[in-house]
Design brief:
The protein is mainly α and about 120 residues long. Helix content is about 60%, strand content about 0%. Helix 4 packs parallel to helix 5. The N and C termini lie far apart (about 90 Å).
Length: about 120
């Protein structure tokens, strides 16, 4: 065969007809499932970030409870209460927060601890 004969036998490429509608119908359920998984993941991440202050406060409270010095423990509890107060709805603030840390007693420390535990759950 000569090159001219070969070129004469060439034909156009026949493309299949495209049906109207989505190009890949079989992938629609997978796409919906993927979007649902992404949405659930975003909700869980948002919830974890929103409650991160509680986990940090619980860890800080455990550290404070391990302190042996009572005045230092009371002082640390007042600062912990002040740090977490912005995350909770407004309410009554213990009077111990308005006094000098050196004048606080063990009962004040116990009251602060009880309120902190109630706030952080």
């Amino acid at each position: 065969m000569t090159p001219e004969e070969i070129l004469a036998e060439l034909r156009d490429v026949a493309l299949p007809e495209l049906a109207p509608g989505p190009v890949a119908e079989g992938y629609l359920p997978e796409a919906v499932l993927l979007l649902a998984v992404i949405a659930v993941a975003l909700v869980l991440i948002r919830r974890m970030r929103a409650s991160a202050w509680r986990r940090e406060a619980k860890a800080e409270l455990r550290r404070i409870d391990a302190l042996s010095d009572a005045p230092a423990r009371t002082f640390e509890m007042t600062w912990l209460f002040r740090r977490i107060a912005r995350h909770v709805p407004p309410g009554t603030v213990p009077s111990a927060l308005f006094r000098a840390p050196t004048t606080l007693e063990d009962s004040d420390s116990a009251e602060l601890r009880a309120r902190i535990v109630r706030l952080i759950g």
